């Protein structure tokens, strides 16, 4: 990058001179109030204004006059304006500067007699922003009709960044008051989203990729700062290039596109030049990056165009990346001190990243992207953490610390909710809790339909802490234990002893209820932090699950050995994921047999029974069903992957969400075919994908003859209520009469049936 403009090394410009003076003031050992008084005096002098005042945002969304040069001294700490009230309140509520030659005739002008403001005709004010948040307002006023220039506005904005640090120091107002109740837009917002894990949550926003707070704002040597910026740009671009070459698609289909956009934006000369201009006004490189971003946010916050909004969130993200490179912060502080009621906000995240957070403090997650069958959603459901996804424009609206309400029932996110929303939330929360109490009270009631068909409601699990959910929900067993989750949360590859310990504790906790252990299903979006792998073009269809286990048989042997040792005299159910060929199942089964033989030779106590099954996730299995059923003890349909491969639609791609319905004729016929083949061979078939936990999908599956469903624990209660209120024979007759219907039609027909027949959905 080359140096822009002439001021960088030469004469001090107005802004730089002012900043230099303010820097001297800030460095003096004075109380904060005295420094603020000195700052407004200095600004008034340097900007040739009769008045300069600083307002600080206090709890309750009130702007209090904290210091003034020019207005009546007795008004200090007395004059208070609500956010949105008067010109000062307007600047705060929109986080946007105002420059008015004739301020008194502006419709927003609010006259305060105690200040003596009637003397001043013109006004220029800027928000005091820190990490994108309004902390106050800085204003200058003149008696004459003064047309403030854009440069003067910029200068005041630059100085406001220093004032922000003074306020954030916590001396002027207590730090607790700084805990924001307001964001860049201080008004409440409602956004539509999709409930990917059910529930309600109230808490404060924690950004998965947090904003960075700056300590050094003012710099003496612009040339040095420009060099630093130059280096940061270079290293950021290199890092983006690395990401692009490494990209394994773990962020879903849009991930690469986002990276490419970043790479393009990083080349934007206009952006770099604006930062350089801000450096030339006397800021450090990092403060200059922040200032340009503040300006951009203020300018773009009212834009409705979804594409441009998306770009704003890209710019935020890119801005954070550039700051990290400038400040040498290369690790994401994923495990910071979290507030008690954290609501995690992210564009998207992987399942392992979610598991990094302290679950006790995590009340909810909201994602700009995300889909129901993405693994982050599955993990959230397993952890019973409400997750809303597909929330377009989220990142541009939410600031760290914003109060948030997640309403999974109505699929809405409220940012900075108003009092009436909070009241409505409390009512919904009570109703939800009442429903949960009733599910808990009914947990021991059999899951039998009105016409006497028993359904096995099993739960999916992946962590030891999930196991107590078995008794809490009254699930009949664990129909899918995703062993990879243990591997994902570990810091290194768990050895046989560690794995045996985990599996034994799962079986202990299950107290005799059946548990189906699925062997390692890593790859695709399930990554092990300690295992670096080569990038793949198409990881969902790549080297994953059983394919890895067969290519690295030592890993599979160790896992099976750990399961055999853990079962020791108890029933062992093993299931292999992503089987595409009968031969693959045979190879895996052979390894299991060898391990059983080895255990016997070593004198270990063998499992009481061993049942071996496979996941039906790859369509090719459909044409090998006779051979498959002849070999397995059971099959479980992984409808998440199966649907992704049948429809050729990435399960993690938010754009394809809802486009292909598993209730559409093609998928129904496929499932029916599998169930019928299972009956013909006398082998049980279950479904353990996300369909199984959706009451409407589950109704359709039951009508097709399915008797075992395995789902996230929070779905068990609602499913039991559905099963117990359903006459399956009636539903089967109804569906037979409907014939083949499109997915959406089938859904509305099923819903109508449920409504007319009192089925609890
Ligand atoms: C599935 O694919 O439906 C399944 C249950 O496995 P996972 O979601 O873990 O890939
Ligand atoms: Mg799967």
Automatic annotation (TrEMBL):
Gene (name only): ptsP
Name of the protein this chain belongs to: phosphoenolpyruvate--protein phosphotransferase
Cofactor(s) required, per the database record: Mg(2+)
UniProt GO molecular function: phosphoenolpyruvate-protein phosphotransferase activity
InterPro entries recorded: GAF (IPR003018), GAF-like_dom_sf (IPR029016), PEP-util_enz_mobile_dom (IPR008279), PEP-utilizing_PTS_enzyme (IPR050499), PEP_util_C (IPR000121), PEP_util_CS (IPR023151), Phosphohistidine_dom_sf (IPR036637), PTS_EI-like (IPR006318)
Alphabetical UniProt keywords: Cytoplasm, Kinase, Magnesium, Metal-binding, Phosphotransferase system, Sugar transport, Transferase, Transport
Domain of life: Bacteria
EC supergroup of this enzyme: transferase
Natural source organism: Dongia rigui
Stated family: Belongs to the PEP-utilizing enzyme family.
Annotated Pfam families: GAF, PEP-utilisers_N, PEP-utilizers, PEP-utilizers_C
GAF domain mapped to chain residues: 31-177
Catalytic activity, EC: 2.7.3.9
Catalytic activity: L-histidyl-[protein] + phosphoenolpyruvate = N(pros)-phospho-L-histidyl-[protein] + pyruvate
Location of this chain's protein in the cell: Cytoplasm
SUPFAM superfamilies in the record: Enzyme I of the PEP:sugar phosphotransferase system HPr-binding (sub)domain, GAF domain-like, Phosphoenolpyruvate/pyruvate domain, Phosphohistidine domain
């Amino acid at each position: 990058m080359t140096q822009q403009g002439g001021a960088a090394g030469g004469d001090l410009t107005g802004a730089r001179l002012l900043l230099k003076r303010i820097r001297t003031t800030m460095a003096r050992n004075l109380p904060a109030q005295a420094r603020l008084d000195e700052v407004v005096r200095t600004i008034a002098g340097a900007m040739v204004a009769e008045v300069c005042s600083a307002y600080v945002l206090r709890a309750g969304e009130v702007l209090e006059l904290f210091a003034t040069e020019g207005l009546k001294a007795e008004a200090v700490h007395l004059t208070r304006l609500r956010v949105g009230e008067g010109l000062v309140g307007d600047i705060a509520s929109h986080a946007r500067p105002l420059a008015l030659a004739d301020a008194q005739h502006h419709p927003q002008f609010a006259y305060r007699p105690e200040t003596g403001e009637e003397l001043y005709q013109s006004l220029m004010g800027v928000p005091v922003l820190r990490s994108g948040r309004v902390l106050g307002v800085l204003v200058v006023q003149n008696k004459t009709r003064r047309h403030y220039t854009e440069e003067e506005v910029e200068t005041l904005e630059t100085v406001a960044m220093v004032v922000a640090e003074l306020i954030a120091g916590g001396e002027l107002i207590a730090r607790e008051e700084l805990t924001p109740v307001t964001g860049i837009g201080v008004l409440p917002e409602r956004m539509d989203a999709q409930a990917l894990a059910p529930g309600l949550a109230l808490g404060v926003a924690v950004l998965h990729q947090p904003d960075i707070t700056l300590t050094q704002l003012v710099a003496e040597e612009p040339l040095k700062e420009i060099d630093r910026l130059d280096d940061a740009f270079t290293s950021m671009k290199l890092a983006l290039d690395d990401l692009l070459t490494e990209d394994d698609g773990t962020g879903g289909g849009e991930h690469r596109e986002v990276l490419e956009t970043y790479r393009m934006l990083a080349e934007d000369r206009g952006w770099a030049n604006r930062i350089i201009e801000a450096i030339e006004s006397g800021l450090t490189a990092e403060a200059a990056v922040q200032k340009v971003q503040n300006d951009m946010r203020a300018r773009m916050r009212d834009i409705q165009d979804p594409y441009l909004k998306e770009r704003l969130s890209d710019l935020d993200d890119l801005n954070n990346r550039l700051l990290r490179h400038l400040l040498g912060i290369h690790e994401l502080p994923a495990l910071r001190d979290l507030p008690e009621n954290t609501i995690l906000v992210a564009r998207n995240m992987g399942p392992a990243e979610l598991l990094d957070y302290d679950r006790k403090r995590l009340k909810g997650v909201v994602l700009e992207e995300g889909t129901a069958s993405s693994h982050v959603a599955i993990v959230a459901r397993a952890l019973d953490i409400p997750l809303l996804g597909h929330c377009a424009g989220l990142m541009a609206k939410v600031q760290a610390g914003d109060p948030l309400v997640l309403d999974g029932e109505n699929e809405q996110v409220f940012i900075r909710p108003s009092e009436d929303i909070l009241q409505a939330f409390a009512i919904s929360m009570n109703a939800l809790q009442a429903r949960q109490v009733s599910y808990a009270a009914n947990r021991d009631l059999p899951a039998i339909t009105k016409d006497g068909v028993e359904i096995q409601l099993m739960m999916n699990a992946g962590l030891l802490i999930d196991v107590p959910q078995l008794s809490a929900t009254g699930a009949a067993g664990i129909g899918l234990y995703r062993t990879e989750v243990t591997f994902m949360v570990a810091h290194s590859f768990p050895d046989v002893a560690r794995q045996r310990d985990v599996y034994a504790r799962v079986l202990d906790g299950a107290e005799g209820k059946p548990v189906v252990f699925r062997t390692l299903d890593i790859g695709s979006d399930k990554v092990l932090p300690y295992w670096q792998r080569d990038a793949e073009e198409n990881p969902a269809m790549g080297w994953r699950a059983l394919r890895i286990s067969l290519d690295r048989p030592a890993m599979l042997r160790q896992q099976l050995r750990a399961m055999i040792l853990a079962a020791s005299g108890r029933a062992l159910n093993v299931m292999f994921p992503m089987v595409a060929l009968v031969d693959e199942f045979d190879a895996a089964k052979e390894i299991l047999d060898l391990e059983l033989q080895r255990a016997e030779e070593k004198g270990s106590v063998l499992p009481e029974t061993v049942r071996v099954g496979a996941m039906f996730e790859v369509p090719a299995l459909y044409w090998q069903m006779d051979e498959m059923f002849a070999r397995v003890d059971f099959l479980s349909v992984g409808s998440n992957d199966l649907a992704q491969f049948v429809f050729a639609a990435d399960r993690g791609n938010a754009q394809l969400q809802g486009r292909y319905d598993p209730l559409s004729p093609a998928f129904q016929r496929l499932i029916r075919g599998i169930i019928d083949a299972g009956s013909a061979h006398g082998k049980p078939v279950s479904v353990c994908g996300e369909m199984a936990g959706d009451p409407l999908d589950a109704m359709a599956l039951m009508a097709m003859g399915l008797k075992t469903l395995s789902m996230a624990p929070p779905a068990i209660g609602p499913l039991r209520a559905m099963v117990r209120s359903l006459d399956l024979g009636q539903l089967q007759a109804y569906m037979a009469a409907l014939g083949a219907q499109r997915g959406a039609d089938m859904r509305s027909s099923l819903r109508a049936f449920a409504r007319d027949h009192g089925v609890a959905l």
